[in-house]
Design brief:
191 residues, four-stranded antiparallel beta sheet, 7 helices, choline kinase activity, ethanolamine kinase activity, EC 2.7.1.82, lipid metabolism, 2 domains, phospholipid biosynthesis
């Protein structure tokens, strides 16, 4: 399992570290890590992200930018919203040395479905919940998935996998069930 650590270092540097093969807690291949590093470097070069000082196999060294999270009321400020709009416009208008089509989400869900098809549970309660979730015919649902419903579907799949691989005690299968219930409820409203 990967661990994400972001710590402020000397002279305004930040160190971002994740476990081998993980990026933000999600399993990744070497290609994904290289692509992320290239994208991060380009964003830094164009002043759309912190400066990049170095990359190593399990993380990177980057500029530390003191900040705070935005609150809903902050977005009502025309100055803040305007600055976000300008930066987002610059970001989306950038020419990148790779395909910017949004393939990650659906590609990741396809990988999750394959991993889920190979899962087995031995504990009776987990097995019953897992079988209930399999009854949703997730592979067929994936073929007709609309982008607006993808969030519920993605987190439902993620939760099933976490039920098997996570060391954190949490009702992952119950969470998956709630996400798929929301998915089917919203799907019915869209039909």
């Amino acid at each position: 399992m990967g661990v994400l650590v972001w710590a402020r270092g000397p002279a305004g540097c930040g160190v971002l570290v994740w476990g081998l093969g993980f990026s933000f807690g999600v399993p990744q291949g070497v290609d994904s890590l290289v692509l992320e590093s290239v994208m991060f470097a380009i964003l830094a070069e164009r002043a759309l992200g912190p400066r990049l000082y170095g990359v190593f196999p399990q993380g990177r060294l980057e500029q530390y930018i003191p900040s705070r999270r935005l609150r809903t009321e902050d977005l009502r400020d025309p100055g803040v919203s305007g600055e976000i709009a300008v930066k987002m416009s610059r970001f989306h208008g950038m020419v990148m040395p790779f395909n910017k089509e949004p393939k990650w989400l659906f590609g990741t869900m396809e990988k999750y479905l394959k991993q889920i098809s190979e899962l087995s549970f031995t504990e009776k309660a987990q097995l019953e919940k897992f079988n209930l979730l399999k009854g949703y015919n997730l592979e067929e649902e994936m073929r007709s998935l609309r982008f607006a419903l993808a969030s519920h579907f993605f987190w439902g799949l993620w939760s099933i996998l976490q039920a098997k691989i996570s060391t954190i005690q949490f009702g992952y299968l119950d969470y998956a069930q709630s996400r798929f219930q929301a998915y089917f409820q919203h799907k019915a409203q869209c039909s």
